[in-house]
Design goal:
Length: about 500
């Protein structure tokens, strides 16, 4: 763990109610001053769900453009079947255009990032970065409304886009400021990134960008450990895990306390969760203090079952003599190591589960007179942690200005959509079963072909969104539930602030 603070110091620093005040007394000020009027919404007299779950086919009339006279572009041009060539690539422009037009949940993305049904600088001052079809990279894009974001994405048709921080002013205006220091990041979700390439030295089934169900268990273990730590140790509630589209997962923590943390606090939390240190050529990667912190004890309880089945049996990490030497390097007693090496050399086909059992068997048989039982137990705990504990890309978490791929974009290499992961159904999540963009478009056409009929006015008003006709539906609905919970929490915080202001007289 980090030398400059204890784990207890980190957790206690974040559990207090030390929320920062918003950067502006009037979050609508900059949007209004941009030229166009903003129509107010009386949240007290409108049901949250009614505002949340209007369809993306509706124009954003309640969220007008901040420009004086925006060009008229239909929110949803008439949908038509797209004929997919048998060899169509996931990133083909016409495929991506159809995806953005028919499937991407722009309105829900707006609500998630805006933290309110009324437009605010939480969204208007948010940076978006687009990767275009020609690999050009456009940074510092910003939009006051979901509709304008959608229109620009349909115009530019990026292969993917990333989400950055909320800035002190509109990112598009950064070059007009007299002082560069006036343009600074002020808020962003606390994020974490877990990638299977960081497990290449211990996973035996796949390497590099390849994954399978066996090595996906590393991600499952990581989510279990990190999620409970964020909730129980730091008190965060609004945590969304998102599949990266190929070989990893991202965590987005949207609690106000998390969003308003400075870089120092983000670094401290990342350090709290970081146990595995050192590259593939380094020696012992786990060096934790004893007695073990409750977070590590809890993690070991979670990981020990995975270690037996997912590591020893499925990965068989010490099958080769080279990997066996790595195991012996992590054990504390030379005499015991010599006995184990002799036994394993005489049985070259011995699997990892048997080798792990041999450690205790030979120790109990008296293979070493100098063996310290406590040291052996601690060494075995450290080995379990090295092969199961989350390997986080902590640099992603430390900085406010780090950009991260948006949920629901399409991974250009696999065609799979970056969908949310329900932690309650984590063991059933299948990364290889996530629908690809071409499959989703075919599902829409298949649904439409089997539901052709004359629609009454009432049926037309209840017309399904295209995503509701596909296997993307449960993921969008999970996203909606997450947003509803987040907005309820934000409304509660707003009432607390308003009540506090009323008391100051």
């Amino acid at each position: 763990m980090q030398e400059d603070h204890t784990i207890h110091d980190v957790t206690s620093a974040f559990m207090g109610d030390d929320r920062l005040e918003s950067q502006s007394d009037d979050p609508m000020e900059d949007i209004n001053s941009a030229g166009g009027p903003v129509k107010a919404i009386d949240e007290a007299n409108v049901k949250l769900e009614d505002l949340l779950f209007q369809t993306d086919d509706e124009d954003d009339e309640e969220f007008p453009s901040s420009s004086a006279t925006p060009p008229k572009v239909d929110s949803s041009p008439p949908a038509k079947s797209i004929q997919l060539a048998p060899a169509a690539r996931y990133s083909d422009p016409e495929i991506m255009q159809a995806f953005y037009q028919r499937l991407f949940p722009f309105r829900y993305l707006f609500q998630w990032l805006n933290h309110s049904v009324k437009p605010s600088n939480d969204f208007a001052h948010r940076e978006f970065a687009f990767t275009l079809q020609n690999d050009a990279y456009l940074r510092y894009q910003s939009f006051p409304t979901a509709d304008l974001l959608r229109k620009d994405i349909l115009r530019l048709n990026p292969s993917r886009f990333e989400i950055g921080p909320v800035y002190s002013t509109n990112p598009r205006d950064r070059k007009t400021l007299r002082k560069a220091s006036a343009f600074r990041p002020v808020a962003k979700e606390l994020v974490f990134d877990i990638d299977l390439t960081d497990y290449d030295e211990i996973r035996t089934c796949c390497v590099k960008t390849n994954i399978c169900h066996k090595c996906w268990q590393f991600i499952t273990m990581a989510i279990k450990v990190v999620d409970v730590a964020l909730r129980d140790d730091f008190g965060f509630e609004h945590i969304m895990w998102v599949y990266s589209g190929r070989r990893g997962a991202h965590a987005w923590i949207s609690d106000r306390r998390a969003r308003e943390m400075d870089d120092a606090r983000r670094k401290a939390i990342a350090g709290y969760l970081e146990i595995i240190k050192g590259g593939s050529q380094s020696g012992k990667k786990v060096n934790v203090k004893r007695p073990l912190h409750p977070h590590i004890v809890r993690s070991l309880d979670t990981l020990k079952e995975h270690f037996q089945s997912d590591i020893l049996e499925n990965q068989d990490p010490w099958a080769s003599s080279e990997k066996t030497e790595r195991l012996l390097q992590l054990l504390p007693d030379k005499a015991l190591n010599d006995s184990l090496r002799k036994k394993w050399d005489s049985a070259p086909g011995r699997n990892s589960a048997s080798k792990w059992a041999d450690i205790d068997a030979l120790a109990k048989a008296g293979a070493s007179r100098t063996l310290d039982g406590k040291m052996l137990l601690e060494a075995k705990q450290d080995i379990v942690l090295e092969y199961t504990y989350p390997r986080l890309d902590v640099e992603v978490s430390k900085k406010l200005n780090h950009l991260l791929k948006s949920p629901f974009v399409v991974h250009p290499g696999t065609g799979r959509v970056c969908v949310p992961i329900d932690p309650k159904k984590l063991d059933r999540f299948d990364p290889l079963g996530i629908p690809t963009v071409t499959e989703l478009l075919r599902e829409i056409d298949s649904w439409d072909a089997t539901h052709v009929k004359e629609e009454t006015a009432e049926e037309e008003s209840k017309k399904l969104q295209d995503w509701e006709k596909t296997s993307l539906r449960p993921y969008v609905e999970f996203f909606k539930t997450h947003i509803a919970n987040l907005l309820r929490s934000e409304r509660g915080l707003k009432r607390e602030r308003d009540d506090g202001d009323a008391m100051e007289f």
